[in-house]
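CORE FACILITY INTAKE
Project code: CF-77B
Contact: R.S. (postdoc)
Sample description: multi-component assembly, two entities in total
Requested service: structural model of the whole complex
Turnaround: standard
Below are the sequence entries exactly as provided by the requester. Do not edit them.
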Amino acid sequence: MKNTIRQVFHSPKFVVGFVIFALMLLMVIIYPIISPGDPLQMISKGSFLKPGVYFSVYDSINTNSKTIDLPEANQKRLANKLSDTDKVSMVQWLTAAGVPAEDIDMEDTTSLIKLWNEKYDPTVKPEGMTMAQRNFYKRLDKSLDNILNEQPLVVSAQNQETQTLDEIKRISDTDYVNLKDVPNVKVLPLGTDNFGDDVLKKLVSATKTSLLIGLIAGSIATLIGLTLGLLAGYLGGFIDDFIMFITNLFTVIPSFVLLILISYSIGQDKRGASTVAIVIGITSWVWTTRSVRSQVISLRNRDHVNLSKLSGHSLTSIIIKDILPYIASYVVMAFILQISTAILAEASLSMIGLGPKTADVSTLGLMMDWAMSYSAHLNGAWWAYFPVILVIALISFSLNLMNTGLDQVFNPTLRD
Amino acid sequence: MSDTVKDKRPLCLSGKGVTKVFGFGEKKTVAVDHVDFEFHEGELISIVGESGSGKTTLSKMLLGLSSTTEGEIFFQGKPRDIKTRKKKKEYWKDIQAIFQDPFSSYNIFSKIDTVLLDCINMRGGRSLPMEKKVEMITEACSFVNLKFAELTNKYPFELSGGQMQRLMIARIFLLKPKILLADEPTSMIDACSRATILDMLLHLRDETGMTIIFITHDIGLAYYISDSVYIMEHGKFVERGTADEVILHSKAAYTKRLISDVPKIYEEWDLSTV
């Protein structure tokens, strides 16, 4: 036993898979501790906030500011407001309006804007310019209003008594606040999703739920498969025929179709994560039964089983002591694969809208489902679905890697 | 041993029209075909035949590990009744076996102690104190020239093939069954250990007076140890009788062929008959 475990941990494939899986487990356990809170709490209004650090504007105005004079501050501000395509458009209008090319300097944004303010006239109709294009330039001109204004901004509050606006602060372009002094800062490493939930927090809780679904479904499937396989293989005869009849029945019906039908008939309201796990479990035991049965058939006529019979051992004792240890490695491998398939099955079910009820839990499949429903992939909101895909892929990859590693340890002929 | 002496002994195990058929229709294989036999108490019977002649199938039926398709087996003159598990368990107190391959005869996950303790438990010694059990096991081990102190807490795969097979005999020594079915117990073992093991088996028979049914493909070995010999070909007994009758005055062509196939060290081996 000790030897086998040592051997298993010498298989590089198993170790890599195990490390990836253990890291995921650690993340699932540790992250909720360092960042507590309800993962399904909507924290943002408006969907798909970009990943990044968000700090309160209100708080930063009220925070004591310091003056820092940076030479390229204005340059950056301008660049942020005026994109390169806008600059190209401006140059195009100016050229069309008859400004000589040598007067236009695209590199110097300040002089370009000054030139624009000087020359632009919305009533001028350059040749070959459509109405839509002229409207675009009107909008562009409007957005450039005050862009070069370096006057301080005035923040004012409404006086409760006189209903007048009282100035409370002037903010100049050289005012800075230390982020540490701002009391409300929210880090959203993976932004928010369509509901306005913190994606990272939700992802961690979804990974936990999906792993639990995998574990429950895998255990159920392995238990059913193992019991039926052992009985059919060892007892043989009528019981074998009967069990194999049912197994074959389940083999020819695609289990995913069965899964859809059962999930649908349970109804949206009653479908919790554990219900889905049980449904997945009771539809995916078929192959375990078949393979356990074939292993047991080859074992039941071995001499050690005969000797055990001759020693007067009972049926259960023979199955548990003389058959089960010989197929244990195989069962462990089947169990690992079942977990991986169950997680994928849950994801597929949720993708077609038959997953657990959204209001209660989040699962990896549900996150994908909602990201797709709100066209995250078309909006460029990669953070809503890509990390989920990555986690599913990593879980599946690590479990399969562990399985292959175990296979190589237990089947020496496969060793390379 | 002559027929007259043998006939005085009571019948131990006998069979009438015992048949075993595997499969059905076109795939039907008759492994054992209507065989009759009478094994007497204290006798050493050899069943000789080549691979696939049905020896092992017959032995499984005798042991009650597989059912007979047709015919009946009699135990001590009465029809054998092993329909329930309880009766089977009773039957297995009287008949035990040593298998061909010592390496596959043991459950590799349980220690040697378990195998031997099971025997004591089966003989009704479950309530005995542990010291008494160890004493019995040590005695059984010393009968087969093994030291229990060296074997305790070891797993079967830590032993050599010869040691494993000797431990099997120790098991029989503890169980003291009326019949021992030895299914080619020496075929996987080197010539030196073979002689030792055969010697132990014969010694055990002399001590306990058990019937030994010795299944082998080695007709020379059969002649060397047995009282009576049954020659089996394609599931049928083609010849039966005392060892001298069958081997020195064989009538069936198959027996003659088996005898001529035995390699002799100082003679050239005639392969033309094979």
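Facility notes:
- Chain A touches chain B at residues 302-304, 306-315, 321-322, 325-326 (CB under 8 Å).
- Chain A has a mean pLDDT of 87.
Invoice: internal transfer
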